[in-house]
Amino acid sequence: MKTMLNFFLFVLILSACFAVQAQNTDGDAKIQAIGSSWELAWNEHDMKALGALFTGNADFVNVGARHWKGRKEIEEQHAARLNQFNESVWKNKKSQYSIFEA
What we know:
Layout: H1 2-43, H2 47-51, E1 59-61, E2 67-69, H3 70-80
Antiparallel strand pairs: 1-2
């Protein structure tokens, strides 16, 4: 009986591990999709689509260390600077992320 209980406990723990892995894979796919959407929006010079990737209270710091707050400002500031990057091409090669919990 004890062996059977240990076996079921092992199966329960193992199935929980697979569930966590499946969630991570789903999260990875969503993050990859955001990266692909950014690349497409940038290369099509579609700042409205680029802005739609942000939340209303997002923070963005550009390469010049300027801080923009919120979707509206992020979209407007990118659109205002579009002529500086008119010939640039964005290519995602690798995505890496970390999850921080407060």
